[in-house]
Design a protein that fits this description.
The protein is an alpha+beta fold. Helices cover 57% and strands 9% of the residues. It is built from 16 helices and seven strands. The strands form two sheets. The protein has a five-stranded mixed β-sheet, with helices on one face.
Length: 345
């Protein structure tokens, strides 16, 4: 049970639930949970402290940033930054600020995974990742160009205009509105085939705790990026597995989406493995084809994912200035090798 909880990212949820039934829990399990929770709390405090420093550095240079997932989602969904497991900090920043943000992160002691030469060459990675040597601190910067799993390009300026402030350890940090955050985490869950229970729990908890969700605004936000079916799938999983109560009209709309129901059912087949038995190449492609909402959008979405190179497709050790066509041609073969191996294993 403890191993599964860790694999699914719900150790904090398990500890909180078992505290209500302490008389039934063996002492050694109590201690193991307490040790795991203590380690998560310490790590969360370190990440949160670093978050404040990063935001201060960016603000001093006029760089706008929005915190997504991580401690802000933990507060919005659970009211506790330590109950949700996360291993890095994710921020949305504008593409025009990436170069200066990279310089600031390097000056703060972080090592970038994307060299400045690649940034200057206009290459777009899956994320701009920064790690602190000799520690587990990781910061990832995202924007409308790196978040490829949005069926349509993320309207970054609209997300910035709808931002809210979330109170976190006596600080107020800029974050997505609850509606935009819910769309984002449903797209993120769909990206990973909903293989871990924590992603479904996040949807359920956010809907439960954020009682003032504007459901019409939520539908508009999902429609704007072509993610209606991804949203429906996330809500369907939260409703079916975790008994999330949805407004009647929303529940009816989710139930009426037959494709979302089939996607949720397929995800439930993968869920018990917690990501240790990932779907194969053709299963992945078929799932992604059904994620967008129309027959026209589906193949275009899959083709874009297939032909949008990331840093894994760049030639290692050189070639930041190499022609983009070679990166595009390289990517399908790399994906076939990677997910073909996963399917066989």
């Amino acid at each position: 049970m403890l191993v599964l909880a860790e694999d699914h990212g719900v150790t904090g949820h398990l500890a909180a639930s078992l505290r209500l039934e302490e008389d039934l829990v063996p002492p050694e399990i109590k201690q193991a949970l307490a040790d795991r929770q203590r380690a998560q709390n310490v790590f969360t405090l370190r990440l949160t402290a670093e978050l404040f420093r990063v935001l201060d550095r960016f603000a001093s240079e006029g760089i706008g940033a929005l915190v997504v997932k991580g401690p802000v989602l933990a507060m919005q969904a659970y009211g506790d930054p330590a109950i949700r497991s996360y291993g890095d900090l994710d921020l949305l920043v504008r593409q025009r600020d990436i170069r200066r943000a990279t310089e600031l992160m390097c000056a703060a002691g972080f090592t970038p995974s994307i060299p400045m030469s690649a940034i200057e060459a206009g290459k777009i990675p899956g994320q701009y990742l920064f790690s602190m040597p000799d520690s587990q601190l990781i910061v990832e910067l995202h924007n409308d160009r790196t978040l490829r799993y949005f069926p349509r390009r993320l309207p970054l300026e609209d997300f910035f205009s709808r931002q809210i402030r979330v109170r976190l350890d006596s600080h107020e940090v800029p974050a997505l509105s609850a509606e935009d955050e819910l769309v984002l985490i449903c797209i993120h869950g769909a990206k990973h085939f909903w293989e871990r229970l924590m992603w479904i729990a996040d949807v359920a908890a956010l809907v439960f705790r954020q009682t003032a969700i504007d459901w019409e605004c939520l539908a508009d936000s999902a429609r704007e990026v072509g993610a209606e079916r991804m949203l429906h799938t996330g809500l369907r999983l939260a409703s079916d597995l975790l008994k999330t109560q949805l407004p009647d009209e929303v529940h009816a709309m989710v139930q009426a989406d037959g494709v979302a129901a089939r996607l949720a059912q397929q995800s439930c087949q993968w869920l018990p493995a917690a990501g240790s038995a990932p779907p194969g190449l053709f299963e992945r492609a078929a799932f992604r084809l059904r994620m967008p909402g129309s027959l026209i959008a589906a193949p275009a979405y899959l083709l874009r994912l297939l032909l949008s190179p990331t840093e894994e497709d760049w030639q290692k050790g050189a070639g930041e200035s190499r022609h983009r066509l070679m990166d595009i041609l390289r990517r399908p073969f790399r994906l076939a090798r990677k997910h073909g191996r996963a399917s066989r294993s």
